[in-house]
Amino acid sequence: MEATFVVVGGGIAGVTCAETLAFYEPDESIILLSQSSLIKSVTNLLAITQTLTRFDIEEKHMNTLSDKHPNVTVIQDSLIEILDECNVVKTMGNKRIKYKYLCLCLGARPKLIADNNPYVIGIRDTDSVEQFLAKLGKSKRVVIVGNGGIASELVYKMEKIHVDWVIKDDHISATFIDPGAAEFLRTRLQKTSDFGPSKRMRYECDGNVKRAGAALGPDWYKHLEIQGGIEDCFSEQVHIHYQTEIVEVSVNEANEFAVEVTLNNGGKIQCDFIVSATGVEPMSDFKITTALELSEDKGIKVDEFMQSSVKNIYVAGDLCTADWEHAKQWFPMKLWTQARQMGCYAAKSMSSANKDEVVLQDFCFELFTHTTKLFGYKVVLLGLYNGQKLGKNYEIIFRMTKGVEYIKLVLLDGRLHGAVLIGETDLEEMCENLILNQIDLSSFKEDLLNPDVDIEDYFD
Ligand SMILES: Cc1cc2nc3c(=O)[nH]c(=O)nc-3n(C[C@H](O)[C@H](O)[C@H](O)COP(=O)(O)OP(=O)(O)OC[C@H]3O[C@@H](n4cnc5c(N)ncnc54)[C@H](O)[C@@H]3O)c2cc1C
Ligand SMILES: NC(=O)C1=CN([C@@H]2O[C@H](COP(=O)(O)OP(=O)(O)OC[C@H]3O[C@@H](n4cnc5c(N)ncnc54)[C@H](OP(=O)(O)O)[C@@H]3O)[C@@H](O)[C@H]2O)C=CC1
């Protein structure tokens, strides 16, 4: 078999890459290799501002892609080896596919605090969510370790279970937000009225919707009933262990709670199982003739055109490490947002190489943007939202209305470099413009968040 373009990986990066190639190269052959017959595609893509987008993710049958694009063939198989000297990939199903350009979008897998332990699970895709839900339904106590996206979503959504949340930091959701925003969000975890001290507000699911389709979309948990085995909701609790790490996990199935966790402060927690929401590691376990340059976390290094160190091999999504000089207000983070952008841009680069044309770096790499939901609030992160790369003497302006909005602007030398917008602030566009055009705001920065002042007046 052969194709001009071969893309490996049926996730967001791979499917976006294949679809973009089909658009730019309608007369060239494209093969998408996917391990699963279900591929993840972007739906309801909405441009909120110049660089900020929101979209859903749907898992669809792989044939939907070839139905939509006649020059795309989707093959359900796994890559096992790349013979880059003769531009051939070998698959688990013993196929040899010749390519002119290859794009690897194999994603990443959960990086667990303990491997090969059935009581320590990670969450990555639909299968792992189902495994998690099955365990949870029979459980009364769970430990969640990690303080990022998955842990934040799970702790907020789980019901009828006692949660011990073990985090290394002095505040929650530290991969996304600062202590002030964390305090604003934490109130969503505790409600001291109807349910007594340190109980969580119960979140009713939508009617009798048990679970969404297979998609792990940005609201992957929204239509799931993530429920434990506690019958009376008065014993569900979230206990947050700040600045704490797990030093040992021991299992004794004869005990009421099979798992005992030992903490670095000497504390011990008994639980039914542990969710290790502790980041991901790139899926770079395939053979290749010419070694690819890898980063420390085993991501495949790519240049500003998403090209790897091996000729005609491109990489996008969680598998790659952005090894070019980053724009001032951009940095990589393993997100759908960036997987889609990288998949699209890798396709443009491959097509330009095929047509021997010049390609310019995509504007999306000028400014870090991410929109998501945390603890039921809309969260928009722009640029260096936590002062990343700004050293110590940046300035913060912020406005908060309890339970409504939390707005933090990060300025250096009078110029806006980042923003955290929690709630329906409607400030995305203003902040994006101020970051991109680097206007000196010194003379009116006090009015930036003054609700009685229309900041646009300063520019008319
Ligand atoms: C629970 C969870 C919730 C998340 N929520 C958000 C969110 O709200 N917002 C956000 O921006 N990001 C979120 N993320 C991160 C997001 O999932 C990833 O950044 C994104 O999916 C990466 O896309 P990808 O295509 O690079 O990798 P993946 O989506 O992992 O796709 C990789 C694909 O490659 C396939 N593959 C792997 N090895 C091979 C092989 N050898 N041969 C063939 N195929 C192979 C895999 O089966 C998979 O289909 C979340 C992640 C998790 C785990
Ligand atoms: N709503 C969203 O936008 C969501 C995004 N995601 C994305 O999916 C990917 C996977 O999510 P997730 O697994 O939550 O990864 P994240 O990178 O978001 O968070 C990992 C967390 O685990 C901590 N950690 C890492 N190793 C250990 C350890 N050995 N012991 C204790 N803590 C540890 C990290 O701390 P430290 O940083 O200090 O190492 C960090 O707090 C991420 O790229 C995330 O951004 C996932 C869910 C939702």
From TrEMBL:
Cofactor(s) listed in the protein's UniProt record: FAD
Keywords: FAD, Flavoprotein
Record has Mitochondrion as a keyword: no
Protein name per Swiss-Prot or TrEMBL: Pyridine nucleotide-disulfide oxidoreductase domain-containing protein 1
Species assigned in the record: Nicrophorus vespilloides (Boreal carrion beetle)
Family: Belongs to the class-I pyridine nucleotide-disulfide oxidoreductase family. PYROXD1 subfamily.
Span of domain FAD/NAD(P)-binding: 5-191, 231-343
Membrane spanning stretches: none
